[in-house]
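Bump. Still looking for Anthranilate phosphoribosyltransferase structure tokens.
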Amino acid sequence: MREYIEQVLRKEDLSFEEMQEASRIILDESTDMQLIKQFLIALAIKGETANEVAALATVIKSFAITLNVPEGNYMDNCGTGGDGSNSFNISTASAIVIAGAGVSIAKHGNRKISSSSGSTDVLEALGIQTNLDIQASLNILNKEGITFLYAPTVHPKLKRIGLVRQQIGKPTIFNLVGPLTNPVPLLSQYTGINRPDFTIEYAKVLHMLGRERAIVVCGTGGMDEASLVGKNSLVLVEKGDLIPFTLSPEDVGLSFYSPAAVRGGTAEENAQIMLNLLNGKQDAYFDSVIFNAGIGLYANGAVNNIPEGVKLAKDSILSGKALDKLKAVVAYSNPNFAQEVLS
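Sorry for the wait, here they are.
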């Protein structure tokens, strides 16, 4: 590991094979945690490459728990996090809306590490038990077309890495690989990063990992979501072609808002925001979700263009289908909570 640390400190990129070896060392429980910390910090300072990200994601997936998932067109819309925007859990709400529109979602997420409320934190605040065994999570996916996979459950080797990441307290390559390590085989994906200089490279990674169709977004101001503030940078991955484009809220009939309009808070506060919008309250939170869900539906191929996706996402909410999805997942995992809170 010291050799790789020295190489990275010299600003030398690791090859795919070198990063695979470094990744295996990182995930070896006998490796000193201080060395792991030094390596991750050095890599962040140098700047990660597509080869490095893809290699780490490949090794992490090779160590994940094996899931017996029926063949299907599954997608994820997990972002990298770490954008510092303090927005509420847009991708988690969008996942529910996308599922309400009929697309099978396997949402991969974690607790807060560099944000105030991770996807797992807000799901628990909504009443969803995230400590379900793997088979129960897959049963929900088969029955309802949506499930939430808690990263430490499906990636037991990452427990020590989580401690290192908390010590660092800033985004690392593990933020970048988080959306790429879903153990459910994904044909499509919508994901956000907070680095406008890395959108093409990240799109390359998605292609390297076998996504048939995907969209990477870097929102205005470096959000890892499509932002209502202004012009967003995106890359469409379609059967190996990488197609950059930009998108503003007005392009899909939505209004501009300031970043403060979608600011979140604690897990409990974000859960209430989510319940309000799923019950049809139309404001900046609502628009942010249908904007991102609409792009996700287009990434999946469920619609022919993003305006159609936004329209379908809005219908998913106003028809009650999205809220019904949430209720179904809560009822499966935590029946008493469902009767008390979501009735």
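The chain is about 50% helix and 10% strand.

Edit: fixed formatting.
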